[in-house]
Structure formats: structure tokens, C-alpha cells
Amino acid sequence: MNSASVIVRILSALSIAFLLSSCGVIRTTAPSSTPDAPALSASELETAREIQSGTASWYGPNFHGKLTANGETFNMNDLTAAHRTLPFNTVVQVENVENGRSVVVRINDRGPYVGDRVIDLSRRAAQEIDMENAGTAGVRIFLLKEGDRPVTAQNASSRETFTVQLASFSSEAEALAFSRRVEGTRVEPVPISGTTVYRVYYGRYNLADEAREAQLKLEARGIEGFVKQKEN
């Protein structure tokens, strides 16, 4: 075999490899997955047990970039959800009973506090089970992985209370200045990721409905806030 034939064969092999890779036939690494949608084994999915059923809702643009109840920054494009009592970092599967579609989410926030709703999904999670346009859907919730600590509906009220969060500042002076403008508020330092933020809270309530009533009264005065469930 002469040198010219060898060169031709090498160039042909390189051309084929390039075409295959550009067409997506060869893939050496899988796309990275979001930490909010943890990979679960088949056995974990099979042993999942139903823990709740009811109405799911979703939240997104109005809360995007704000802090969740566990101190994370809410990203409506992550697979997360808010629940009233499940421990933070609990992983659940939410099934839309109307179409059979399901999504796996991690609990990182508290809520919802509206009517009989049992879970508040991120917008992306709502899209996964095709309920974004409807806004709500009947769902079944399956426990896949326990979270940070066990919390039951029976003992949650003894360890957690409801309040209305009005603002959050990186400066204590700014938080105190804001607090002085609204009677009945308090400032609490909260350590988050190696730094401290100062949150302004209004009131302490045993029931979510009581906190919601206070929130509506504040809104009537032009003061915006949201109901939050926090530990005593």
C-alpha cells in the first residue's frame, strides 16, 4: 500500500467521525441534571407510598429570585415545591390525576395557604405535569425520600408559627429603618450561605388563615408581604 492510499484512508476515517459527531450519533457525556430533580432508582420509585392527595397550584414570576422558607433563592425553572409540613429537602413525586403525568420535586418552601391546596409547584414542575395553563390540578403525592427532619401535621403547630414577611435586607440599619415605619414589626437576622440577611416580620399566628387575614389588612394599607411558616 503506497503512502497516498494511507493518507486517503486516514482522511476518510476522520471525515466519517466528524459527520457522526456533528449528527449527534456519538455522545460521550450525558447532559447535566438539575439538583432539584434527583435521580432515583427503579426500586425507590416502586416503593414510593402515597401520603396525600388534593389540589396543587403553582407559583413563578412574582416570587422568582426571592428567598424561600429554607433560605434558598427561588428559581421557578427548578423542580421544587412548597408544602406546609413536609421537612425541607423531602423528595416527592406529584401525579396529576387528570392526565397521569408525574414529576419529582424537592421541598424547599412553605405553603400554599389558600383553601384546600396541598402543594405549590414551581412553574417548571407545573409544566411537567401539564397544569400551567389551568393553574390548579388534582394530584396525588408520593413520598420518595425523607427530608432533613420528620415533621407531622400533629406536631408541626407546636414547633412552627405563621408570620407575614414584609422585606429582607442585607443591611441591618436598612431593615430597622423599614421596621420603624410599620408598627408591630420586628427584625430578625437569618444566616444564609455564610452571610446574614435581616428580615422584617409582622405578627405571630398559630393559624395560616390568621396570618393571611393580617396580610390582607396590610395590603389594604399599601404594605406588601407574604405569609410564611417559620420555626419558633
UniProtKB/TrEMBL annotation:
Q: What is its EC number?
A: 4.2.2.-
Q: Name one Pfam family in it.
A: DPBB_1
Q: Does the keyword Disulfide bond apply?
A: no
**Which terms does the record give in the GO molecular function aspect?**
lytic endotransglycosylase activity; peptidoglycan binding
Query: Domain of life here?
Result: Bacteria
The signal peptide here is: 1-17
Query: SPOR domain: from which residue to which, for each copy?
Result: 156-230
Could you tell me the Gene Ontology terms of the biological process aspect for this record? Answer: cell wall organization; peptidoglycan metabolic process
What is its EC class?
A: lyase
> What are the alphabetically sorted keywords of the record?
Cell wall biogenesis/degradation, Lipoprotein, Lyase, Signal
Function (record text): Lytic transglycosylase with a strong preference for naked glycan strands that lack stem peptides.
What family name appears in the similarity comment?
Answer: Belongs to the RlpA family.
Per its record, how is this protein called by name? Probable endolytic peptidoglycan transglycosylase RlpA
Q: Which organism is it from?
A: Rhodohalobacter mucosus
